[in-house]
Structures are given as C-alpha cells and as structure tokens.
Amino acid sequence: MIQFDKVTKNYDSDLKALHNVTLTINQGECFGVVGESGSGKSTFLRLLNQLERPTSGTITVAQQVLATLSERDIKKRQQQIGMIFQQFNLLHNQTVAQNVALPLKLRGKMEPARVLDMLAFVNLTHKADAYPRELSGGEKQRVAIARALVIEPKLLLCDEPTSALDAQHVDEVLSLLEKIHSQFQTTMVIVSHELAVIKRMCQRAAIFNRGELVGITAVKSAENAQQYDSYEARAMEILQQ
Ligand SMILES: Nc1ncnc2c1ncn2[C@@H]1O[C@H](COP(=O)(O)OP(=O)(O)OP(=O)(O)O)[C@@H](O)[C@H]1O
C-alpha cells in the first residue's frame, strides 16, 4: 500500500531528517516505527500524510506517486487518512459528539447517525454531550479515535497514541486499536518510543536512528530485561524475540 523509494527529507539546514529511506508497508498491516528522539519518526509520518514533501526520492501510496498529484488530489488523499496524536488534539469548546462530527462537517456532510455509531464503537455514547475537560485521558483518546474513524480511513496514522496515558488507559486504547485492525483491516502505522506498544500491536517495525533506517524487523512477543549497548540494539533484539 505504501512504498518509500530512496526518500530523503532535509528541512532548512543541511541536517537530513530522513536519509535514503526505502521501505514497503503492506495493505492491512499494522506497522511500527521506533527510534530515539530526533531520529525522524514524525518526519516519516508527515511525509506519509503529505504535510511535507520529500527533498528527493518517491513515495507511492495505493499505486499513486504522491509527487505527481495536484494540490486538490493531495487534499482528497489526506481526507482518506485518519490521524491520532499523543495530546489528542480535541477542540475544547466543542462537545464529544461535535468533535467526532468535525471531519464530516469539514466535508459539508451532516451524518448524526454515523457520529452516534462511532461513539458506540468507542463505548462513549453516554459522553456525547460532555466536553473534553470532563473526560479522562483514555476517554479523550477514544474520542480522537472516533473522530479519525468517522471518515472510514484506509490508513490510520498513530503518533505516540499512548504516551500521555497511564497504564490502565494504555490498555483501553490499545484494545480499541486492535478492534479497529481486526474489524476493518485498516492499514495502521504506529509511531511510539514504547517498545511494548509496538510489540503488542505490530507485525513489523522499522527502527530509525538519526534519519537512517537501521532495519526492519518482524515483531514477536514477550520482552526481556537484558541490557543492550544502544537503543537500536535493544529495539532490534526485543522486537525479534
Ligand atoms: N520543521 C522542521 N524544521 C527544521 N528541522 C526539523 C523540523 N522538524 C524536524 N526537524 C529536525 O529533523 C530531525 C528529525 O525530527 P523528527 O521530529 O522527525 O524526529 P522524531 O523521531 O519524531 O523525534 P521525537 O521523538 O522527539 O518527536 C530532528 O533533528 C529535528 O530537529
């Protein structure tokens, strides 16, 4: 579904946020992206949802080379991508139902029944008229997930989806992401510095270090407490167990 071919991204300076990255993400896959701070994870996501363009190389999504698309087609593509963030990014002066309805409203659609379906899917029907300040962190993230799903995305991008949550809410949100993956076969890309999250959710993961793709590994279960020389060695070892 997604192909990066020798993709490099420089921002203003000479520093390469991503350097010569080639990888493929399959349709229906849950793909993890790990790496230390500044390794290029967010840049990878921003290229995927076309908020940034590569300095060189090509990105192909659903057999379409992104660079060949018009602004209008890029906007259309972006509307098929759902995104969830570490800090939820809810509108605080809007109710839960209004937050979930927002992507539909932006497309000029009013589908209250669909909003209610989504709230039921994330188990928050009873909070439809509440405001974000009245919710727990886990509930806020579930609202954000309902908002991402309301457009029936082909691709769901998750940027540190559990990093702002305590353990109980982490489980709640991951269970919901698992349910989405099994029910809708949505292709998912999860960026997280928490290896346990990637381990639970993903079939494969890419490991980045300073903009370089160090490797892609199949993910197996159960973590051990061994000491490693570097973050990359630990990531590679733990994810392969
Ligand atoms: N808009 C920007 N302008 C200039 N440099 C940037 C910009 N965004 C990111 N960078 C730089 O690109 C490199 C990769 O950043 P990126 O945000 O992709 O890393 P990350 O792995 O997501 O980090 P974190 O885990 O801390 O969010 C970093 O050196 C960063 O300073």
TrEMBL record:
GO terms for molecular function: ATP binding; ATP hydrolysis activity. Gene3D superfamilies: P-loop containing nucleotide triphosphate hydrolases. Residues 2-235 form the ABC transporter domain. Keywords: Amino-acid transport, ATP-binding, Cell membrane, Membrane, Nucleotide-binding, Translocase, Transport. One of its GO terms (cellular component) is plasma membrane. InterPro entries: AAA+_ATPase, ABC_transporter-like_ATP-bd, ABC_transporter-like_CS, MetN_ABC_transporter-like, P-loop_NTPase. SUPFAM superfamilies: P-loop containing nucleoside triphosphate hydrolases (SSF52540). Belongs to the ABC transporter superfamily. This is ABC transporter.
